[in-house]
Amino acid sequence: MVNEKEIIRRAADGDMEAFEIIVSLYEKKIYNLTYRNLGHEQDAMDACQEVFLRVFRFLDNFKEESSFSTWIYRIAMNVCKDHIKRNRFGYDISLNQENEDEEYEIEVSDIRYNPENAYERKELSEKLESGMRQLSATHRDVLVLREVAGKSYSEISEILSLDVGTVKSRIARARENLRKYLSNHGTFSI
Asked: Could you point out which of 18, 49, 69, 85 has its C-alpha 20 to 30 Å from the C-alpha of 9?
């Protein structure tokens, strides 16, 4: 069993092996978060690399006032925001399962070879992506952290430096706005 606090202390003291352990523990989760926020594989890989560069550079500033995962997720969200500001051309958010960790996998019957189901899945995925692009950045951020990263309200509150009540209301509004978008575009009926 890896003692995360000890690994963090060792890495902060310059132990490269300990830092590599941190990277291996968080790289898939951070990649998934950046991919969901930026929507492009290369952008997500660049952002993920930037996150770990910042972690390496500022690890000695981590004061354990919050959990390490909260701290690193906050860095990742800030890197994504910086990337979006630099690249104001917009971006897509993919909701495909192909790049997600095993912890997000679910078992379903194999319906890959049914053309009707494949078309419906593709159409729904495109509508969800389009709906996510229509959300404001504040709503998209909380929804991605909650639904993709699986973070609790309190964790999202810490990551985004918001009150828990604000997080809950933004998630509710984001879900409602996404539901309205999907309903208005023929995906769901009210």
From this structure: 49
Q: Rounding to the nearest 10 degrees, give the CA dihedral for residues 30, 83, 172, 183.
A: -110
pTM of the model: 0.58
In three-state form (DSSP H/G/I as H, E/B as E, the rest C), the secondary structure along the chain is CCCHHHHHHHHHCCCHHHHHHHHHHHHHHHHHHHHHHHCCHHHHHHHHHHHHHHHHHHHHHCCCCCCHHHHHHHHHHHHHHHHHHHCCCCCCCCCCCCCCCHHHCCCCCCCCCCHHHHHHHHHHHHHHHHHHHHCCHHHHHHHHHHHHCCCCHHHHHHHHCCCHHHHHHHHHHHHHHHHHHHHHCCCCCC
13-45 pLDDT, tens digit per residue, is 888 999 999 999 999 999 988 888 887 888 889
CB 72 within 8 A of CB 63: no
| Domain chopping of the chain, boundaries | 4-184
The CATH code belonging to domain 4-184 is 1.10.1740.10
CA distance 145 to 170: 12
